[in-house]
Amino acid sequence: MDLNAVTDVLRPCGRAELPIACEGDAVLGGGTWLFSEPQPAIRRLIDLAGFGWEPLRTGADGLTLSATCTIAELNGLEAPSEWRAAFLIRECCRAFLASFKIWNMATVGGNICLALPAGPMISLAAALEGEGVLWAPEGTERRVRIADFVRGPREVALALGEVLRAVHLPAEALRRRAAFRRASLTPLGRSGVLLIGTRGEEGDFALTVTASTRRPVQLVFPAMPISGELAAQLAAAIPDALYYDDMHGRPDWRRHMTHLLAQEIRDELSEPGEGRA
């Protein structure tokens, strides 16, 4: 779609060329959402393509994704064999339910910064203890957990003029055992519920709830909880008002499916005979 209110398009090639933020600015990654509907408030586009950032890098410390890494590039990653949770990458890429055209344009950073509850890159990064690297306009940078970065629908922890530069997923999180569950009202519908559980070598358990809630919710346990404890902690952490309500699922359905899939994940990651009380 033509954005006929836009009067300027900037293509910085270095950090020093990032402009001073103005009202009406929009940062352009892949643009798959930006160009999908009218944007009458946008006056200036800041295109990040000119930076030429390396899409992704693997190392002993984990996986670093540039904000402009496309879904197709991420899906094509050949992860080290010791990264047991790496299968989550393709599960979350497939959760887009999008055509190859979208996969080749949509970016990791764009999906996270759009902050829609069903954003699968939010699910992936939050569950794998991802940190966002934020560039500030004065030349500094800061890091924030993606689980905290997304505050609600279309609301993120970017200050005026800040840009999401990259997302880092630590190797320790990628080495954890993991389980994935997703539910939608229709076979090819947007995610209404998306849960990821991970478990460490010491037996600790983390459950990350996305899509069903307005923002990511993460529960961490030192050991696998029993069924009743998990249900009670979910109820305490997610009040009814936090469940999302739109055409892709009513809050009561999202709550029911969240509790159901959480128990399935708990059972999958439990050792035989563990936590059955």
Automatic annotation (TrEMBL):
FAD-binding PCMH-type domain location, by residue?
A: 1-174
UniProt signal peptide: none
Q: Which GO terms describe its molecular function?
A: FAD binding; oxidoreductase activity
- Which domain of life, per UniProt? Bacteria
> InterPro entries, per this entry?
Diverse_Substr_Oxidored (IPR051312), FAD-bd_PCMH (IPR016166), FAD-bd_PCMH-like_sf (IPR036318), FAD-bd_PCMH_sub2 (IPR016169), Mopterin_DH_FAD-bd (IPR002346)
PROSITE patterns assigned to the protein according to its UniProt record, in alphabetical order: FAD_PCMH
Q: Which PANTHER family match?
A: XANTHINE DEHYDROGENASE FAD-BINDING SUBUNIT XDHB-RELATED (PTHR42659:SF9), XANTHINE DEHYDROGENASE SUBUNIT C-RELATED (PTHR42659)
Name of the molecule in the record: CO or xanthine dehydrogenase, FAD-binding subunit
Q: Which organism is it from?
A: Ancylobacter rudongensis
Lineage of source species: Bacteria, Pseudomonadati, Pseudomonadota, Alphaproteobacteria, Hyphomicrobiales
